[in-house]
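notes to self, project folder thing:

trying the whole complex as one job this time. last attempt i did each chain seperately and stitching them together was a nightmare. two parts in total, labels are on each line so i dont mix them up again. if this works i'll redo the older ones the same way
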Amino acid sequence: MKDVQSQKNILLDVQGLKKYFEIKEGFFKTQLLKAVDEISFRVYEGETLGIVGESGCGKSTTGNMLIHLIEKTGGTIVFDGKNFDDLTAEEMRSLRSDIQMIFQDPFSSLNPRMKVKEIISEPIRTHTNKSKEEIEQDVYNLMEAVGLDKSYANRYPHEFSGGQRQRIGIARAIALRPKLVICDEPISALDVSIQAQILNLLMKLQKDYQLTFIFIAHGLPAVKYISDRIAVMYLGKIVEITTRDQLFEKPLHPYTVSLVSAVPLPDPTIRDVRKRIILEGDVPSNVHLPSGCRFHTRCPFATEKCKMESPELVEHEQGHEVACFYPLAN
Amino acid sequence: MSESNVVLNVQQLHTSFKTNSGYVQSVKDVSFQVQKGETLAIVGESGSGKSVTALSIMGLIEKPGVIEKGKIELEQVDLTKINDKEYRKLRGNDIAMIFQEPLTSLNPLFTIGNQIAEAIKLHQGLDTKQAKVNVIELLKRVGIPRAEKVYYSYPHTLSGGMRQRVMIAMALSCKPKLLIADEPTTALDVTIQAQILELMKKLKDENNTAIILITHDLGVVAEMADSVAVMYAGQIVEFADVFTIFADPKHPYTQGLLNSTPKFYEKNEVLQSIKGTVPTSNSMPIGCRFNPRCPYVTQKCLNENPSLKKLDSGRQVRCWLVEEEGETLV
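result (full assembly):
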């Protein structure tokens, strides 16, 4: 499928995706927690789409729905021309080899009782009929690709540092040459000097294996470093989505602006001159959502209209969508 | 600055932990001073000894840990020589600490007001009624809305940012001379982090408190610190004022750390990572502890550990390269 305007191949097309959780309040009352509430976006072949937002914005729930770890409540996901809803269980299973995930915590996402070579070869053994020798060769190639020494193949996960474990997780994720890799906070549990190693490794693998990434994180600097386009989420909604440069040079949504200005920059000479918007208050709860625009309780520019009506995500200019009644111009 | 402005003077601190395989030195030969109204940032990755340094100052090193030698002087009183009872008088009164995880450092069974009032009653001898007035005043100062109501709330009803404000209120309740903040914003979202950092700056200016800020985030350092101590594997490897360290880092580890941090406002930057990982404390390399990861390693680095050499302008570097090139490099 091709996008008419940009002539780029659409790998993933998400429309109106929703995930509501039922939570009990008291004995008989149930409430809906709207973790993800009708979001739509596209991912083009070969690009990296960053998804940023604070805790509770629904970014990880979105990732989990895309890999079918949790069932969606509504909306459509079309991956590589196939609608998730039309697939049989068997077809869904084989489709999963094309979508892989890298997890946040390299300590709990690897089975402590499996050797490295078993961890990395598991997807190959599950999805293909390769011989033992072929699988072994694949494992060695993968280990080399992610920068692990072959001699580690017979070791167990506890013998590795956090950064090395994340490399094992990455090798497992790319073992089947997937089309889409979802990285859910892949570096936030790692030390600063290791974070750069992993980011650079991911970018190298993307080039070598022609991968498409969805990079979910709360840290803006890393997302900016790796992404081609970025979606900003707030309380289950996408509030802005555009190219990386556009997002940082001409952010339109007040939340994006405050998010960018809240990042502490590693340069002491600008700390007193930098203009910042410091938001007041906390993120409201997903259960008792504010009326109208979800950001209006913290927005410095909110009007009466924002309290009553919820703005839709609309294209402000080509390739730059924003959900705000009063997008900021410069 | 005159000698009387020095709040804390740490000299040649050595802290070790006894393990099955002998003593492991977590902090080795650490010396620094903090002046009144100064913020000293201690930067380092996991296992660098930054938190153990803080706990040593607080007198919270418990068996099997032991402060082997060195002195910790809080306004000329050597804290390594006083007994537990005297320490209890100091803690919460003259020195206070804020921890990373505000939920685990608050007692879930007592109300917020109760917990903050405890220190005030104990150290200032106020009765419950007077203490309550003080506590509500404090809660208002750290930006907690509806302070009278929060006084009677339990910790679980507050958000992460609010809890950290409560921790700050508690730490500041007795106007300490020294405040130690151990990763105070690591568990918080970006927009909340900005609020808390702003609050700490404001309170420091009002009270002229000396602050030791422990963090791994160079952005937070650049935002907050006056001077910076970079720790690696239990030792200070570089010490300088914040502007010098960011503009002209001398130690290869500091350089690597800065190069692996995204600058954020630069377009298309390339991150350089530090190869390898932090050594564990029972497998310290011989010679300079950074030598397995250092790009400029020489034969001398493999044999001898360099000392922390004072250059002019008060900066200190632990590196043979700097030592040999001497003052000409400065």
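what i see at first glance: Chain B is about 35% helix and 25% strand.
need to look closer tmrw
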